[in-house]
Specification:
With 488 residues, the protein is of the alpha/beta class. It is built from 19 helices and 18 strands. The structure holds adenosine-5'-diphosphate.
Length: 488
Amino acid sequence: MRILQVSSELFPVLKTGGLADVAGALPAALGAQGCEVRALLPGFPAVCASLRHAQKVGRFTTPWGEAIEVVLGDLPGIGTAGQALKTYVLMAPGLYDRPGNPYHDSRHQPYADNHRRFAALGWGAAHLAYGLDAAWAPDLVHCHDWHAGLAPACMAFWQSPHRVPTLFTIHNLAYQGCFDASCFAELGLPSAAFGVDGLEFYGQVSFMKAALVYADHISTVSPTYAREIQTPEQGFGLDGLLRRRAAQLSGILNGVDASVWDPAHDPLLPHTFDARRLAGKALNKAALQAETGLNPLPDAPLFTLVGRLTEQKGLPLVLGGINELVQGGGQLLVLGSGDAALEQALAAQAQAHPGRMAVRLDYDEALAHRIFGGGDITLVPSRFEPCGLTQLYGLKYGSLPLVRRVGGLADTVVDTDLETLDKHSATGFVFDDFDSAPYQRALRMAFALYRRPADWSRVRQNGMRIASGWEQSAMQYRDLYASLTSPT
Ligand code: ADP
């Protein structure tokens, strides 16, 4: 089965969040399941700089009259054994050749022509689906997040004797790609598409809605999130549509790419370790404390958070719980960037608690590995969380996740109580309501367990031993592709 994977990010070439990890890991995992995956990416500077052996395969003209060259080349694979990934790239410097973040300028303003930048991605996918490359055409197009959301619409209206099915995966329903209605005229879609049964959303154009309406199947990155987005609380206005499409909506959990995230072989860790040999973990903690200016206290539980600094990620709870955490004898280390007010509040708290709290307002892939490798607890108290990857990295690196029971966090972490301890199923700490009291109760539970080294070690072992690779999920995607390419 030939699959064209369409996304705007792909690890290790370009990453702003979990989408890149998934787009980077899936092709190889699907390859092991007998799928031939090629990627399609916009020609962002980082993508063009990494592409090898590029050859022109064709060109197409966008609805607004811009000619775009499509090249095919190799992107570096992940890890030491990683195979190069055959990737189509849209060479459109006027749209993509801009420094920094792929979506917004240095003042965090979305680019004014984002509708064109990502409509081009949608049309590029449609052209590849319907013959742009005479040597290769996909059996199915798998689109990720709103950036690729126009592709199912472009393909639904394509005049062709055969239809190529589409799968659209929601990585985060909160980001929808909405644009002024005046943009619609540039998208090259029939006027009928701009209606309540099409991509019109409260008078705007929504790329996310385009995908939810026109894709043959919709998936999201955890079974719980697939249910939650059908409710008004978590549906971001699209829950009604998602309920109507419930028969074509499913959840497939993300995995952990062991060629990137494995404490036993991680070249980014000062000291490797595994579930049976944990000496390296303690050395990593000491190194991390020294590196970040935290007091060298081997017995202080080290709470960590790696992620986008947004309300979604539960930063208000973390900020509200700092006194409890520090007074309980813990330490807090945060790595992230995002909302300016949250950044300032965290920096101020770090100043107020020298040696006890440290903040790195940065995006630093290597430091993230060292944090999972040296930390004791991984905080993910999200308001909502489609899947979440950092709790999975925390599990694997022996840094117990403390999470809210929501989305993929609910699907991947088992709360510690006497029963789950006894059954060896406990892997972390889980609280329910997005409120300071339950969050702080979970903090106290973490402290209590930490004071019982035998129990702590048991829970850590449970988490580290979970098989969280991509194999199971890739098999589910493969089966889904098969059902869509040969419907009964
Ligand atoms: P989301 O996709 O919502 O941002 P996920 O937990 O699914 O959240 O994935 C986040 C990914 O980005 C993880 O690989 C995490 O380690 C990484 N990440 C987030 N912020 C940073 C940062 N500041 N530095 C390094 N890695 C980061």
